[in-house]
Amino acid sequence: MRPVHYYRCLRGIVWREALRFLNQRGRFLAALVRPLVWLLIFATGFRFVLGVSIIPPYQTYIPYEEYIAPGLLGMILMFQGMQSSLSMVWDRETGSMRTLLVSPLPRWYLLLSKLIAAVIVSVLQAYVFLLIAYFWGIQPPRLGYLTVLPALILSGMMLSALGLFLSSVIRQLENFAGVMNFVIFPMFFASSALYPLWTVRQANETLYRICMANPFTHAVELVRFALYEQFNLEAFAVVAGCVIVFMVLAVLGYDPGRGLIARRAGAE
Amino acid sequence: MLDLKAAAADRGSSAAPNPEAPPLVVEGLSHSFGERQALRNVSFALERGDRTMLLGLNGAGKTTLFSLITRLYNHRSGAIRIFGWEIKQKPSEALARLGVVFQLPTLDLDLSVAQNLFYHAALHGLPRREASIRLRREIERVGLTDRMREHARTLSGGQRRRVEIARALIHQPRLLLLDEPTVGLDVASRQFMLDHVRMLCREEGLAALWATHLIDEVDAEARVIVLHRGRILAEGPVPEVIRRANASTMREAFDNLTGERGE
Q1: Using CB atoms within 10 A as the burial measure, which of A56, A242, B39, B205 is most buried?
Q2: Does B110 touch chain A (CB under 8 A)?
Q3: For the domain B21-97+175-263, what is the CATH superfamily, name and number?
Q4: Structure pTM?
């Protein structure tokens, strides 16, 4: 296997992920409607309930919609990351993971390709969302649209890697509802996506600590700062660290020698 | 003599350790899941052109054996060699020479037939132009050329299976594994699969290992391996296995060997 084989394989995996996404119109629509419902309805309803004071990276008072926009970008990345990884396990396409794993390329590379494909699709979704949000009045600085790109990529990698890892080890999560309840909702609500964490801290110190320990919080903050042309070092460090940890765990989970999938097969 | 060695070295890692190595050798393979022993000291070999039916009831260990040969997970004892490449040490070389039709349907129903096949070609690192030629040829041989652009979802179960066997052959493997490929198929589709694989072995020298729990699928021209509770009870050309089991039909032989009634 020469480098050109690696390249063709990556291209094929990305191409398939994109085709799947475009072919499933329902999925495309759902992926957009979900954050838009939050933005257009939820945020409007809460506009006067939740005032947001001036906190970095904002330099002025901002409406609530503007505050939650980065959180909703995080939501898009999370749903897409989980869905593309876990769909390998469900959707009656239990076999599609098998076809991937009999490829002669190294397994870590196949997983990495899968991850890159998921990230490309979710970043595209994020930009479509930003475009619609622009017409709803959420207009970050022009350059922000560019500086947010690396933040979206890195955060997308973290969430997709987490999805890959979950798909390798967790057998109990039989359907997407299970992941919603036990992974997506807790991660989403215990984060800075919907409210600044100082408000959480005033209410409950323990919950605040949990939110701070939640990698999703840092993904959202990384995106939030980047969208306003700023760099949040702490968030970057946490997210980058998590990408590595989750990816290593996913590779171990699918390692034929570690026996995680072997044990799973035996239990079936 | 020296020149030959140098030539082999030139070809680098893609040259087989021994050009005469048999397509598949399984040696002393055991595997267990916790307490449950799925395979016990399983050994057999496939030669070029061999069509071997792996016959066993559900739970006999067929799927475990296939998972190990396709390296879904590693074997911990014994050896599996594909054209001389030990699957654990040289997975890339071994897998590149192997085509698989899985028990579960694995086509992506949201993609067209051609897209499914191109995806598989990409996983094997084939350039697009070459893939295009090969997949046209394979899909023509299973008689589905006019369905190439249609979504896999619109195909019948039998047609999907045909696409899957075409797909398994795109990277031109010399060893084909089929895990209960006819489950859920109608009579005509089942016959098509049997005939197609027979043709591949006879005319192109492919070695095929076909797992099944249906004794009817084991014809007199094939070889058979009877796997029961993780152990090989008999192996060889079908007539010979029947004779050695003091039986007159394969069904009788299976019943005699296992002490259970097969399907």
Answers
A1: B39
A2: yes
A3: P-loop containing nucleotide triphosphate hydrolases (3.40.50.300)
A4: 0.86
